[in-house]
TrEMBL record:
This is Hydroxymethylpyrimidine/phosphomethylpyrimidine kinase. Keywords: ATP-binding, Kinase, Nucleotide-binding, Thiamine biosynthesis, Transferase. Belongs to the ThiD family. GO terms for biological process: thiamine biosynthetic process. Its EC number is 2.7.1.49, 2.7.4.7. PANTHER family: HYDROXYMETHYLPYRIMIDINE_PHOSPHOMETHYLPYRIMIDINE KINASE THI20-RELATED (PTHR20858:SF17), PHOSPHOMETHYLPYRIMIDINE KINASE (PTHR20858). The keyword Magnesium does not apply. The keyword Protein biosynthesis does not apply. Pathway: Cofactor biosynthesis; thiamine diphosphate biosynthesis; 4-amino-2-methyl-5-diphosphomethylpyrimidine from 5-amino-1-(5-phospho-D-ribosyl)imidazole: step 2/3; Cofactor biosynthesis; thiamine diphosphate biosynthesis; 4-amino-2-methyl-5-diphosphomethylpyrimidine from 5-amino-1-(5-phospho-D-ribosyl)imidazole: step 3/3. It catalyses: 4-amino-2-methyl-5-(phosphooxymethyl)pyrimidine + ATP = 4-amino-2-methyl-5-(diphosphooxymethyl)pyrimidine + ADP; 4-amino-5-hydroxymethyl-2-methylpyrimidine + ATP = 4-amino-2-methyl-5-(phosphooxymethyl)pyrimidine + ADP + H(+). GO terms for cellular component: cytosol. It comes from Parageobacillus thermantarcticus. InterPro entries: HMP/HMP-P_kinase_dom, PM/HMP-P_kinase-1, Ribokinase-like.
Amino acid sequence: MVYKALTIAGSDSGGGAGIQADLKTFQELHVFGMSALTAVTAQNTLGVQGVYPLSPEAVAQQIESVGTDLGADAVKTGMLFSAEIIKAVAAKVKQFGWDRLVVDPVMIAKGGAPLLQEEAVSALKTYLLPLAMVATPNIPEAEALTGLEIRTIDDRKEAAKRLHEQGVKYVVIKGGHDDDGEETVDILYDGSEFFDFTSKRINTKHTHGTGCTFSAAITAELAKGKTVQEAVQTAKSFIQAAIEHELGIGHGHGPTNHWAYRDSQTR
Ligand SMILES: Nc1ncnc2c1ncn2[C@@H]1O[C@H](COP(=O)(O)OP(=O)(O)OP(=O)(O)O)[C@@H](O)[C@H]1O
Ligand SMILES: Cc1ncc(CO)c(N)n1
C-alpha cells in the first residue's frame, strides 16, 4: 500500500521549513509526498530575504493536477499568504472531499517576517478552519485566531475550545513558544477531552521549521489511517528527535534534523 500526502505551502530555499520540511518529513515516515506551492521565499537560517506569492490560479491548478490523478490520503496547509489563496485552497479541498486536512495556520516566521497578510486571518477562520480535521497553532497564532491572551495552560485550553467552536475537529496548541520551564507541552482537544503531549525542552537555537515538521508528521500518520491521537504522539517523537540531534548548519537559527527520528528507530 502506498500512502500519499499533499502539502499546500510555501517554499523555503534554506530547506528547513515550508514545502521542503514537509516533503522530507513525509519521506522519512514512508509516505509519498506531493506539493502545491503557494509562494516562493528567499530564506535561510538568518531570516526571510524575499517573498514571492503565486497567483491563486497557479495554486488551484497544482491542486487540481494532484487531485484528478494521484489523489491524497491526507493534506496539509502551511504558508498561504493571502485571502485569495486561502479561498482557492478551501474550494479545492471541498471539491476533492479531502477530510483528513491538517491546517498549520502559519503567520509569522521566527525572525518576524510576515508569511500571512494580516487581513487574511479572517479568511483562514471563515473558509479553511471549518474544513480542518486538525489545526496546529502555536501560542501567538492561537491568540490571533481567538483574540485571547494566552499565558496559562487554562488559557490554552480556552483557546482550543474556541477553535473547536469555529469548526476544527481536533485542536493542537503547541507549546514551543512557552520559554518557561523544563518541558514543552502540546495540548490536544477533541471537543470533549484534553490530552497533553509533554517532552523535555531542549535548549537550542536550531528550531527553524519545527512547526512545519510537526504538522507534516501528523499529516503523514493520518495518511496511513492512524487516529489523531496516534498521529500527534508520533509527530511529537519525530520533532523531539529532530530538535535533539541538531545539525548545526547555517549562521542563525538552523533547521531541525529530519532523519534523526528514523535513526532513533534503527539504533
Ligand atoms: N526547544 C524545544 N524543545 C522541545 N520541543 C520543542 C522545542 N521547541 C518547539 N518544540 C516542539 O516543536 C513543535 C512545534 O512547536 P512550535 O511552538 O515551535 O511551533 P512553531 O512556532 O509553529 O514553529 P515554526 O514557526 O518554527 O515552524 C511542538 O511539538 C513543540 O512542543
Ligand atoms: C515557507 C515557510 N513556511 C513556513 C515557515 C514557518 O516556519 C517558514 N519560515 N517558511
